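ARCHIVE CARD
CATEGORY: sequence design from structure
SOURCE FIELD: tokenized fold
FIELD CONTENT:
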């Protein structure tokens, strides 16, 4: 094998030596690299004496002056940066103070609005239950836990409008209700009185205010009349409460909310006065309220609260900190308006506030700047010595480059990529062994060969001409050079190389991609043809339909798509085996392919479904003729494996452009028509009709798939645990149905349950779910001793057919269950719409089942049926849980539902809890339990069983929350 470098005079025949020396192309290639100096022996390395030590001393003096100038510049920049940082820190402190004041002010406003909302909630209770008694009022208020949640609220009272003529009856009723000392006071009163009847919590202090006439005192009378006439909460100015008279004064205010007759919401002032029943009043002490916001935890900002605007205020109502003799650095004033009152809050920064600012930045910038200045000066001095050292290293680099040139020679010869050098006369100057192997000829026989004349492909000859002219070219050819040489598939990249002092040449890079191309062709076949029958698959059929549609647009013809499904083919697979069924499919494919025109395409979509694309049709009758031919082709008996039988098809036909204009639409329409043919008795064909419509087609598709899903076992059940908030104990499980479609993947219930309701399939699905869940409960009781209920959702249709109690009893009895293990979940709409629902629920309760009201608050939310129906549990809808984190009153509805549930003795579960913030808010509301992604997504039974087993083993004490799965 020849060496890596070509003899210097090689230009044509190997036996002729020219009289003059010509440059080696490899040497020319290397000399064109700007980072590699030419290895010319005529250029000696510079020695120490040649660099000239006589200039070293002036250079050192210049380097010293440069270092000094750099030091002065750095010091100047350091001073400027220090001044800028000082100003920035001051601006940041003011901005931080503004943000902090806004945060505290918003927190104070939110607290007041929440306290006002308490009066609204109490008034709403009285509106919902006009006949509420003293014991019920006390139980409702006790459930609010005022001392824990609302510091400053002394209690919640109800004052009723009393006619003077009826005062004696009111007094007698109150004393009969257990308030023996009750009297209306003061004795003197106007023509109308509003008397304090209920006050809770029933402490000695609150009971002292019973009987007081709210209209007997001007401040309270003004606030009551304003609440009565406006329908909105009214607030008094700062006063001393009646229960505090005789004690040290403590400023407070009272929130009044009017209540109207029969829960009405009158629109005019006259209607409000006519239907006025009384007011709910909430006395609030200012100091505990303000301490909840500006208490000991707030050390950086001091707050002082004034009634009215600051210019008109005589004295502060509240100070979070004692006045400081030092003047605060930062001061801000904010007004707070609520109801009919204006308060002013003065905020002052405290010494602790300075610790939170970035006051450390200016000295740090100064220190860093001085350090960098010293470092830069030292670095410049060091660079002087480095420059002298660099001259010494330059000589060493020259020797290294010579070694690198030898390495390039080795790389050229051992590279797996074929490389050839072509001169400007199109002759091969040199090539590596990989190029010789690609061509299929010895390397010695290629040198000096005219590549353009011996090129097998004319495109290659043209590309060589273009590359010699200075153009980079890429192309693919099946044979490189020499007729009779090696055949394969090659990629060729021709790259011209030109240098100022040497003649230009072309570098040819050749890669054999024959194996890669054959693999691509095989992959293409697998991607476009069915492996079982060899027919085009779905991908290729879509392409054929698209091409036929384009031609039909040009010619004004039609394209027919025939969707063929073999009737009762599943019986063949189940009875004779899948191998036998595969052979039947191959026989059907051969008959379909053999009976069509050359322009038609028959393919297989999957399973026993075939598709025929018939282009260049003029009318629907032509498509019908194709369908009749298919029926005739398949009418003859098949003989497979010694068995003789007939396979009949159901055919659906759609036409382009009549029914759809794309492949997907045509196939969908033909599929709808095919199911219509099956419903009509099979072994027939049907055209899709416009009356079906897009919605009907989709419903038919989903309905047919759902029927197959119920038959083929595509439905499955997942379980989501319910966790008690107080101790993270799993207290229940909810069963949820899912559908895993063989082609569409996972389908959620909101897509298929409405179709199931319309078609009646929900009855079968519900019965299957009920039996599956009872069987799973039995397995859990046997394996792990399950002791918590499992909830099952029941649809409206299951209630309406009257068979639900019997079906539940049968499922429980067949699995040896007594009923307390099963929880039935119903929606508000089901209870309202279904008149016999009371008897159905009572029958379920008699069997031992628990009853849960799902999605509470999103439907009718009628409180009356909470007394009529035997309900054990309320489930707060996830939409209210998502609003919990919103500022303001995002927790008002969940709070009301929790309070209502507690007052009625019902268990309350929050659905859709996804964040720790939501859980903490629910814990503050004293909600009993929750379920959601924060603890676990719905998971299969086998994934939930270990958690339930741990709970049973530990005597019901569940460990800390552990996410179970990311399953849907």
């Amino acid at each position: 094998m020849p060496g890596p470098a070509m003899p210097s005079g090689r230009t044509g025949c190997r036996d002729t030596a020219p009289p003059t020396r010509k440059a080696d192309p490899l040497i020319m290639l290397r000399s064109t690299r700007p980072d590699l100096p030419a290895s010319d022996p005529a250029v000696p390395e510079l020695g120490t004496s040649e660099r000239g030590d006589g200039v070293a001393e002036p250079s050192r003096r210049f380097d010293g002056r440069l270092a000094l100038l750099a030091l002065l510049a750095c010091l100047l920049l350091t001073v400027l940066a220090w001044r800028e940082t000082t100003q920035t820190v001051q601006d940041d402190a003011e901005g931080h103070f503004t943000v902090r004041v806004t945060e505290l002010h918003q927190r104070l406003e939110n607290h007041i609005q929440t306290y006002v909302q308490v009066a609204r909630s109490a008034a709403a209770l009285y509106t919902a239950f006009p006949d509420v008694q003293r014991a019920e009022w006390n139980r409702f208020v006790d459930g609010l836990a005022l001392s824990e949640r609302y510091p400053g609220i002394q209690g919640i009272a109800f004052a009723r409008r009393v006619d003077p003529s009826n005062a004696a009856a009111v007094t007698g009723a109150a004393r009969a209700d257990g308030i023996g000392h009750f009297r209306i006071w003061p004795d003197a009163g106007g023509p109308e009185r509003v008397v304090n009847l209920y006050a809770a919590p029933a402490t000695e202090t609150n009971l002292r205010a019973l009987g007081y006439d709210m209209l007997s005192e001007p401040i309270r009378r003004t606030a009551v009349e304003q609440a009565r006439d406006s329908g909105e909460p009214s607030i008094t100015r700062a006063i001393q409460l009646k229960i505090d008279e005789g004690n040290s004064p403590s400023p407070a205010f009272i929130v009044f909310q009017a209540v109207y007759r029969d829960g009405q919401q009158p629109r005019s002032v006259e209607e409000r006065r006519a239907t006025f029943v009384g007011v709910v009043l909430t006395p609030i002490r200012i100091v505990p309220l303000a301490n909840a916001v500006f208490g000991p935890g707030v050390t950086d900002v001091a707050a002082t609260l004034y009634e009215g605007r600051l210019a008109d205020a005589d004295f502060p109502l509240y100070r979070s900190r004692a006045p400081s003799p030092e003047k605060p650095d930062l001061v801000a004033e904010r007004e707070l308006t609520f109801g009919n009152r204006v308060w002013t809050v003065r905020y002052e920064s405290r010494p602790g506030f300075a610790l939170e600012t970035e006051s450390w930045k200016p000295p740090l910038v100064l220190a860093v700047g001085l350090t960098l200045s010293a470092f830069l000066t030292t670095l410049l001095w060091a660079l002087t010595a480095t420059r002298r050292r660099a001259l010494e290293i330059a000589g060493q680099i020259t020797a290294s480059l010579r070694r690198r040139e030898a390495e390039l020679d080795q790389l050229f010869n051992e590279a797996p990529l074929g490389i050839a050098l072509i001169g400007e006369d199109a002759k091969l100057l040199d090539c590596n062994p990989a190029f010789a192997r690609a061509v299929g000829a010895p390397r010695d026989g290629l040198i000096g060969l005219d590549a353009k004349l011996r090129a097998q492909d004319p495109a290659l000859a043209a590309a060589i001409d273009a590359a010699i002219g200075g153009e980079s070219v890429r192309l693919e050819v099946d044979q490189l050079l020499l007729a009779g040489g090696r055949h394969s598939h090659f990629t060729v990249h021709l790259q011209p190389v030109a240098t100022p002092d040497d003649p230009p040449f072309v570098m040819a890079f050749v890669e054999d991609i024959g194996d890669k191309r054959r693999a691509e062709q095989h992959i293409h076949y697998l991607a476009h043809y069915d492996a079982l029958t060899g027919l085009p698959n779905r991908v290729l059929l879509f392409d054929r339909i698209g091409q036929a549609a384009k031609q039909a647009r040009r010619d004004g013809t039609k394209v027919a798509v025939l969707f063929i499904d073999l009737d009762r083919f599943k019986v063949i697979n189940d009875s004779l085996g899948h191998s036998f069924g595969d052979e039947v499919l191959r026989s059907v494919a051969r008959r379909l392919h053999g009976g069509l025109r050359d322009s038609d395409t028959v393919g297989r979509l999957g399973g026993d479904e075939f598709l025929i694309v018939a282009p260049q049709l003029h009318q629907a009758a032509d498509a019908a003729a194709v369908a009749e031919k298919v029926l005739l082709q398949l009418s003859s008996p098949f003989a497979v494996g010694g068995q003789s039988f007939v396979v009949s098809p159901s055919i659906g036909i759609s036409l382009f452009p009549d029914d759809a204009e794309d492949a997907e639409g045509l196939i969908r329409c033909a599929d709808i028509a095919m199911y219509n043919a099956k419903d009509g008795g099979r072994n027939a064909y049907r055209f899709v009709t416009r009356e079906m419509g897009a919605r009907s087609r989709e419903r038919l598709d989903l309905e047919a798939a759902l029927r197959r899903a119920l038959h083929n076992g595509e439905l499955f059940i997942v379980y989501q645990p319910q966790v008690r908030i107080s101790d993270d104990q799993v207290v229940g499980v909810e069963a949820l149905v899912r559908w895993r479609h063989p082609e569409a993947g996972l389908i959620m219930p909101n897509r298929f349950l409405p179709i199931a309701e319309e078609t009646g399939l929900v009855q079968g699905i519900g019965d299957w779910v009920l039996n599956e869940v009872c069987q799973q409960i039995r397995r859990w009781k046997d394996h792990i001793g399950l002791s918590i209920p499992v909830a099952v959702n029941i649809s409206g249709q299951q209630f309406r057919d009257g068979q639900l109690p019997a079906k539940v009893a049968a499922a429980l009895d067949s699995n040896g269950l007594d009923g307390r293990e099963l929880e039935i979940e119903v929606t508000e709409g089901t209870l309202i719409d279904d008149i016999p629902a009371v008897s159905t629920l009572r029958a379920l309760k008699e069997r031992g089942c628990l009853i849960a009201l799902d999605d509470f608050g999103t439907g009718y939310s009628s409180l009356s049926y909470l007394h009529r129906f035997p309900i054990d549990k309320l489930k707060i809808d996830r939409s209210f849980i998502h609003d919990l984190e919103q500022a303001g009153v995002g927790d008002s509805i969940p709070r009301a539902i929790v309070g209502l549930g507690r007052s009625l003795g019902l268990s309350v579960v929050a659905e859709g809890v996804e964040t720790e913030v939501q859980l903490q808010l629910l814990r503050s509301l004293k909600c009993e339990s929750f379920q959601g992604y924060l603890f676990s997504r719905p998971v299969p039974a086998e994934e939930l069983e270990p958690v339930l087993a741990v709970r049973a083993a530990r005597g019901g004490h569940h460990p800390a929350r552990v996410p179970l799965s990311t399953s849907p």
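CARD ANNOTATION: The chain is about 45% helix and 20% strand. Confidence is low (pLDDT under 50) at residues 1-23, 26-52, 956-963.
SHELF: design records, drawer C
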